[in-house]
Amino acid sequence: MDLAERKKIWQDFMDTGRIDPRLPPLVARSWQDCRRRGVDPQHREPIPVGRDELTAILHKNRFLLQVAGPLMQSVHEIIRDSHFLLALTDRDGCVLRTIGDDAILEHSENILFQPGSIWRNDRVGTNGPGIALEYDTPIQLIGAEHYCADQHNWTCSAAPIHGSDGQVIGSLDLSGSAAAAHPHTLALVVACAFSIEQTLRSYHQSHFMKAAANGIQEAILLLNDKLDLRWANATAARELGLSRKGLAALDFRRVLPQIDWASLHPDDTSDSPLYIDDLRVVLPGRTRRFSATLSQTCDATGRTYTLVLRRQEHLLRSVNRVAGNQATYTFESIYAADPAMRRVVERARQYACYDGSVLIEGESGTGKELFAQAIHAGSSRRRGPFVAVNCASLPRDLIESELFGYEKGAFTGALREGNPGKFELADHGTLFLDEIGEMPLEFQAKLLRAVETLSIRRIGGKEEKKLDVRVIAATNRRLEMEVAKGAFRGDLYYRLNVLELIIPPLRCRPADIRYCAQAFLHRFNSRYPERTRQLSPAALQALQTYSWPGNVRELQNCMERAFYTSPAAVITPDDLNLSETAAMAPRQVPAAGAAENSGERAEILECLKTAAGNVEKAAKIYGVSRATFYRLCQRCGIRPKDIRRRHR
What we know:
Strand content: 15-25%
Structural class: alpha/beta
Number of domains: 5
CATH topology of the largest domain: Beta-Lactamase
Number of strands: 21
Shape: elongated
Number of helices: 28
CATH architecture of the largest domain: 2-Layer Sandwich
CATH class of the largest domain: Alpha Beta
Mean pLDDT: 86
Helix content: 40-55%
């Protein structure tokens, strides 16, 4: 059809409402919609948006403008001499930008085809951008195929633009004189709209990937084959403490001395990633440690090394979780009915509020680690690790590496990447040194320095690492006496003994014997309700007269054994199987005259000499109450006053 035929078809529709079968179906549908909506084909009113509203619309569509602008300019360079107008609209038909020569721009003002005007079918009648937006399809309108008469001298080819989610976000239109209409014009517009969509999709994908990369806790650095920085996420700049410019200036061969770059095969991209649990990152003036993953890829731009750094704290947290370096007991886990034990628990609660070193003294089985865990669980470090070390079980030649760790190649048999020690594992938490009295004398000086400075140097390492660790030590020895004998360093003792906690033995707190026995029995009854047991009065009496050399641990084992083996529902003294002659309590008050033969008198005298005759202090060293210590002195014929006079 030529322009005249299109005009006749339009006029016939206006007069009769009849649709000519030669009219494109979408155009026919749009004409009918315009008539139903009451659009005036002869007197269209200008409907531009206000200046402030246009500013808001342009800001809302800034990404679309940013992407489409260069592509529109490229198309305009191609059609510069054709006197066509290129226009971009938003999803509501508002014109965002137009590009064309002065003549076509001036001509377009006659029909208000300029930024801020609305080109929807319900506003200005059937038009190219309106159909592209309303029906989501490319369209070319020529002359009188437009619904309104003032557009009959125009041809427009429009295509919808889709966002990354597939929804229509705007349209691209190429308009000019109706006499210059050409089918290739629509193809050009469709191709340009497709390019805008692809660029938008790439932009969004890149934006989301960068947002995701910048939002994770790992530092990501991309290096080219010359080990120059290509890109780094925000976490890398934050973790390494450098700006993007500072990162780009780094020599990564020096920054990452542990990585043997020469061993990475440049022609093989199938190698598995390189995992390094303990990577030193040497930065200007400081050294940081990370766990790392290094992988390599090859594309059109060349080889790229991807280095992912994770703070070593994350690795140590995982190690602690797997190793069970967590406190499981709280103060509610401690059975305490005896007033003396309750005072100890209350003091431990007070210690939990502070960060000072704690020394827990008590016989084996009194629950020293239980108290240590409760102090940790009640402190501000409760979310951190609780790392327990039994000093008595550490081989002499491995003590330093176990506590302080070691670097790569520090000694024969060392792990390839090195290994953190217990101090590092306990960072931001608590290090519990059990049986500290068994620590070899020659290592105590190094331990003292670590406890005093809270910094360690790995075996084979060159730099010290500052830590945030609370140290709790425990022993079944009387360390003050060990210091007097020269078997334990006095400076280490006083450094550990900032907050002292002495747990009395079970025999010195009779109320706890009954309470703990009933608590243990209740636990077993709850676990095996079909085998409920209870203690006879005679059994309770037998428990309270026994010396309990193994303390609470022995009592728990005794109750468990009786629960399993007692033939009747009531546990008798015979079921307890207690043998007083099998093991006497180390601190049981001896009979008159027996102390001298057993050497107890000499030990009591040594405690008094160490305490300069101070009975309360000597009793604490000996591990009994002051009243019990006085009775021991009386039975052994010892007068504390005489000791005090000698030390004046």
